[in-house]
Amino acid sequence: MIYSLEAGGKRIRPLLVFATIDAFGMDPKKGLSAAAAIEMIHTYSLIHDDLPSMDNDDLRRGKPTNHKVFGDAVATLAGDALLTYSFEVLGNIPNDSITAETRLKLIVEMAKAAGTEGMVGGQVADMEGEGKSLTLQELEYIHIHKTGKLLGFSVLAGALIAGANQSQIESLSAFAHHLGLAFQIQDDILDVVGNEQEIGKRVGSDTTNSKSTYPKLLSLDGAKAALREQTHRAKANLAKTGLNTTLLMEITDLVASRNH
Amino acid sequence: MIYSLEAGGKRIRPLLVFATIDAFGMDPKKGLSAAAAIEMIHTYSLIHDDLPSMDNDDLRRGKPTNHKVFGDAVATLAGDALLTYSFEVLGNIPNDSITAETRLKLIVEMAKAAGTEGMVGGQVADMEGEGKSLTLQELEYIHIHKTGKLLGFSVLAGALIAGANQSQIESLSAFAHHLGLAFQIQDDILDVVGNEQEIGKRVGSDTTNSKSTYPKLLSLDGAKAALREQTHRAKANLAKTGLNTTLLMEITDLVASRNH
């Protein structure tokens, strides 16, 4: 569990929790437990995705994947335990910090974002789509679920912790939706033009696995245009919140311009 | 997910939730969500335990194991999704039925029972003990964690939902501890003397996998004596509660005398 948690990674999800709380002028530290829980969910999903029965990847974040070091059985259990512990961490947020009702809302929304309506559902759709020629709509369905829902929950968690009102939650959710698509389009672009050493995993694996990607469906230039469009929409929704979203704007630029 | 949930099984854990609530003279239906959540956790653990990288079992509850029907990848994800959904179900118990604080307590305790301090921890210890000659103490450590903690949580969940006081919780926890050991001793005995068709999985697999068992450490007669001792202690703790524990007593007899 610790090996994979400490293997690094971009920590985009925790950053989104903190930056969202910061937008409300509150102490980002209020989001520490939620940020840790979300990063555990993300890490468990990577451990299981990398298993031989799934993507069979040897390298992740520049290091041997969990099952390469500890074997398939322990990797499966480490993932299970991280997923389980993430809910314990959310349930244990001190009462004086966040009300019991808000903690329950965080737990239910995290489960939705991570389960069949979210990440796991997207992963299944992704596997079923392998080797097939997908439409842009089908590709977006996969990404919205596989990556977008947990990114969206990171923003929602920050908003719930900060006590956002309904209209702020709607604008922030729309922001997260477009940010998630931008994130995935850039991921696909990096698999074509990226540097293996900077990314820390194999590049070109989408082509090898005959996966549908944005560059394949839209051409590389078309994918870059779609990335600009999603980035623009993400920022437009941020502007609607009336909050001090400097950090969220910066994260959006980071996501769109990252090289790993 | 549905294939494995509906494959049958003894439903001992849900029965424990209901019987515990019944002991307080309350409507067992109050425990439906908790019972469902616990059975989902149990089912996910069986799906993952049966995977080729773990116990590599082809038959479970008299039917082909999940990965035999759906493949290793989908079986892994079905387990992940059941685990995730179990927390969503607990978090969604209506507010008029159980307070938010109690729901949070249920979530945290279920995570502890299922995670590294509980079921997953026991599974890792079990795997590490394979092929080794274990002491009785080491064997009990494995069983208390791998099976006992979730059985214990089933009783605790019923007690929390029914509003048990601290002394009742202590007696009921001690009851569950001994019931869990009785359950496992009978499991080991059945692997020696049981009927494959009634059990619905391979018998003799402990010997094949050179696992330490109670009959091996204590002889078959010694294991039967230990079973009687644990059953006796379980019932003695029930008697201490001052509750109407008729159903819990019956479940204890069922666990000790079951042939599958």
TrEMBL record, chains A, B:
SUPFAM superfamilies: Terpenoid synthases. Its EC number is 2.5.1.10. It comes from the Bacteria. One of its GO terms (cellular component) is cytoplasm. It catalyses: isopentenyl diphosphate + (2E)-geranyl diphosphate = (2E,6E)-farnesyl diphosphate + diphosphate. Its cofactor is Mg(2+). It holds the Pfam family polyprenyl_synt. This is Farnesyl diphosphate synthase. It comes from Neobacillus rhizophilus.
